[in-house]
Design brief:
By secondary structure, the protein is α+β, with helices and mostly antiparallel strands. The protein has helices at 3-13, 22-48; strands spanning 57-67, 70-80, 87-97, 108-113, 123-130. It is 29% helix and 36% strand.
């Protein structure tokens, strides 16, 4: 059999497809599109009044305050061991900007994510929780 004969057989075996007028399809979907169009102006109005996104916050202990306007904060998290599921402690050190140099070694502090201030500083001191 040639390719032309195969095409003729498949076209003869399948029933003809009825074409639906475009106006009938548009009428069914119109209410959905209008509802979406109505909500867009509200979204655009709030987009211009956007507040900055949620920033990460961490609570930790000040390990060092020997640099000018910079503190090193150690944050300890408790996570399950990947294999044995025992809870273990993991710590991370963050360099944070301390404008007024209020935090001292041993303080419990809250730090908040911010734009990069230097090569290593991406956090700023939000509050000294305990001395």
């Amino acid at each position: 059999m040639s390719d032309e004969e195969k095409n003729e057989e498949t076209s003869a075996a399948s029933p003809p497809v009825e074409e639906v007028p475009a106006s009938a399809v548009a009428d069914e979907e119109t209410p959905v599109v209008e509802a979406a169009a109505e909500s867009k102006p509200d979204e655009e109005a709030t987009a211009s009044d956007k507040k900055p996104g949620l920033r990460k916050e961490r609570v930790g202990k000040v390990v060092s305050d020997k640099m000018k306007q910079t503190i090193v904060v150690e944050v300890v998290r408790r996570v399950p061991h990947p294999k044995f599921r025992k809870i273990i402690k993991r710590s991370s050190k963050f360099y944070a900007h301390d404008e007024d140099e209020t935090a001292v070694v041993g303080d419990k502090v809250r730090i908040v994510e911010c734009r990069p201030l230097s090569k290593t500083k991406r956090w700023r001191l939000a509050k000294v929780l305990a001395h």
